[in-house]
Amino acid sequence: MQLIRKLYDWVLHWAETPYGGPALFMLALIESSIFPVPPDVLLIALCISLPTRAWRFALLASVGSVLGGLLGYGIGWGAWPLVNSFFFDYIPGFTPAVFAKVQDLFAEYDFWVVFTAGFTPIPYKVITIGSGVFQVNLIIFVIASLISRSMRFFLVAWLLRRYGPGMRGFIDRYFNLLSIVFLVLLLGGFLVLKYVL
After folding, report:
1. Reduced to 3 states, what is the DSSP secondary structure of residue 154?
2. How far is it, in rounded angstroms, from Cα 157 to Cα 38?
3. Which DSSP category does 194 fall into?
4. CA proximity to 29, closest of 58, 59, 71
5. Contact at 8 Å (CB) between 93 and 190?
6. How far apart are CA 17 and CA 24, in angstroms?
7. In this structure, are residues 110 and 140 in contact, taking their beta carbons and an 8 Å threshold?
8. Measuring CA to CA, which residue among 7, 118, 3 is closest to residue 68?
9. What is the mean pLDDT of the chain?
């Protein structure tokens, strides 16, 4: 929990600088393809600090995330033979068998696979890279990503505009519990990839 708390505090410190917006954009961009920390943490802090800019922050997170998804797509499309052993060796739940199941799902439900991963705790980066490997139609990929990521980030912005600073107090007060819930949801996402998909 200490490491997660330090990372959380480091991400939050950007909200107290003039670079909060650009940092949110970059965090959203790299999280969609390679980085493990979701941009929601910084989005929450920025929306609480500057509630009148909540929609702008949600837009920055959405655009950054979709562009990062395209980066993940590019990794899958152009560099998969060079990086696949890293993913199979170090990403939990990311096995050749799971990847084959994901390929079957992409063939039948390409839009819904991307949409679901973009909105839920299912690891979005696995799906962005998989979309490139399996050459999902790029227009379908972008539309599904844009809708799902925008829904997710604008929902967070709306909640914070509506309920305000009390949400930050709630997060600080229950940080350990929320971290456990987040990790359970994240692991659940990997289990869905492994056993359901």
Report:
1. helix
2. 15
3. I
4. 71
5. yes
6. 12
7. yes
8. 118
9. 80
**C-alpha to C-alpha distance for 54 and 163, rounded to whole angstroms:** 12
Q: Strand, helix or coil at 179?
A: helix
Number of domains comprising the chain: 1
Cβ atoms of residues 49 and 15 within 8 Å: yes
How many helices (DSSP H) and strands (DSSP E) are in the chain? 10, 0
Max intra-chain CA distance, the chain: 48
Task: Pick the closest to residue 27 from 55, 3, 63 (CA basis).
Answer: 63
Phi, then psi, of 123 in degrees rounded to 5:
-60, 110
Model pLDDT for residues 109-168, shown as the tens digit of each residue: 888 889 888 877 677 888 898 899 999 999 999 999 999 999 889 988 888 887 776 666
Dig out the tokens for 111 from the structure.
């839009």
Q: The domain containing residue 67 runs over which residues?
A: 2-196
Alpha-carbon distance of 8 to 89, in angstroms, equals 26
Contact 118, 144 (CB under 8 A): yes
Closest CA to 10 of 35, 33, 32, 34: 35
Tokens of 141: 């990929």
The DSSP output letter for 18 is T
pLDDT at 61 over 90: yes
Entry field: residues in the chain: 197
Q: Work out the pLDDT band at 58, boundaries 50, 70, 90.
A: very high
Q: How far is 155 from 151, CA to CA, in rounded Å?
A: 6
Average of per-residue pLDDT across 174-196: 62
